[in-house]
Amino acid sequence: MPRAKARPGAGGPVPAWTKGLPITRRYVLTGTPGAGKTSILRCLAELGYAVVEEAATAVVAQAQARGEDEPWTRTSFIDQVVDLQRKRQLGTSSTEPVQVFDRSPVCTYALAGYLGLGVSRALATEIERITSEGIYERQVFFIRNLGFCEPTSARRISFQQSLVFEGVHEQSYREFGYELIDVPADRLNSRVAAISSTISRLAL
Length: 204
Prior knowledge:
Layout: E1 25-31, H1 37-46, E2 50-52, H2 55-65, H3 76-91, E3 98-102, H4 105-115, H5 121-132, E4 139-143, H6 159-175, E5 179-183, H7 188-202
Parallel strand pairs: 1-3, 1-4, 2-3, 4-5
Helix pairs in contact: 1-7, 3-4, 4-5, 4-6
């Protein structure tokens, strides 16, 4: 698959020809399950950031509500996640200059590999779209594990497995040419402050 390319102005100075045109900077939070992304995202929302929640969790919750215990074991699961991610990204107001996403299709790529499901045509197409259009900023916030992983109905993974999954995510983002900004384990407010400060600096 091709490496990610930045759109004009993504993560750097805005070219003269783009001045006057609206530019939305979309930052991604990624990392292993249970690392604290959801809590960080909600705190960023309280600070006034436009945020988009994780699609995979929503797909799992909807399936489990219908009585399907482990929807991630079927091949169509990945395509459902991709479809919801795309809809949420396209449905977010373009008037918001900064948006923060809990995961991106690159995370779905990592998930597909971890689950042994392979890269579907829909996933490949979406990866190509976000790459060619530079949908997300090249700088990605990598939320490091907290030293444990608390299981939930949608998160049935041990801490050791979560470390493997963390490595798969890191490898996937690097494969597509993204720059990872480490957010180490710390108090929630410290992590939120660090991310907000970095976004403020990058978005100038």
